[in-house]
Request: fold
Amino acid sequence: MEQLLRQIDDHKKEISSFNATDEKQVEDFRIKYLGSKGIVKAIMGEMKNVATENKKEAGQLLNEFKVFVEGKYNELKESAVGSQESSASTIDLSLPGDNLPIGSRHPVVLMRNRIVSIFQRLGFAVAEGPEIEDDWHNFGALNLPEHHPARDMQDTFYVQQNPDWVLRTHTSNVQIREMEKGKLPIRMVMPGRVYRNETVSARSHCFFHQVEGLYIDENVSFADLKQTLYFFVKEMYGKDVKVRFRPSYFPFTEPSAEMDVSCFICGGSGCNICKKTGWVEILGCGMVHPNVLTNCNIDPAKYTGFAFGMGIERPAMLKYEINDIRLFSENDVRFLKQFTSAI
Ligand code: PHE
Reply:
């Protein structure tokens, strides 16, 4: 029995310090210890020489030894495979990387960011609102009661499940939602997508994008409106561009105006873009109608404000010389990948 113990101890020491660097050495280990003529088998054979009263203890020791050897064998196997794998997949970090295609921003997004960032510099915050809107926020609160003929200015998509819902026809709904919050003053721009039931052609689409602007405070005047928009035009189209306001009508502003800029393609001398007039219309604007303020619980005796709304597609088409509005929504990668500007 003692001899057996010593033998096992000696083997354990030898096994513990055994190291294999390749699979061949691991296999040698297996044959030496676990093979059919291996050491584990041989020691098992010694059992017959052990005295009967020690057999139980010896059996346990031998079993432990076998488990120990097998554990070591598995360990060697794993480390040998691992070291071979890592040497096979040595990565050359100095190789040049694969070039991934760089995406580009959508031209509508580029133009929206340009417009919004100019107003942000003037201290305007950015707000957004829902595209599916109720009648009140899209029309009613904007001084367009039911049956008002001005509703025909914007052909509307109605939502079948609920006759009170429309796809918003303009971003002016966000004006109402911001005013309703009751936090004054308001100085915000509100970009977003709008929908109108129009025949799709190269020049018009059933959905497009607008940026709305709203400034409400005490003593806001038409002069503020003009100066703000002058600044915008100079930043957007350059110092030499001329501006003109034409009287117009929107139910939610009074007085109302449309703003034209001198054609930045021909410089005002007349071309196809400005239809030979020398002017390009870019936005609608006006002083917020007192009824609209009242509808939003703002006292029109104390507060005044101005609002404006402009399309995004048209300036984008002019800037990037795009001649068909449908290209914006067709997702043709050949078209989209041409826009690489950083903003
Ligand atoms: N909502 C108007 C339109 O879509 C634009 C506008 C906004 C006009 C704000 C005046 C004030 O045509």
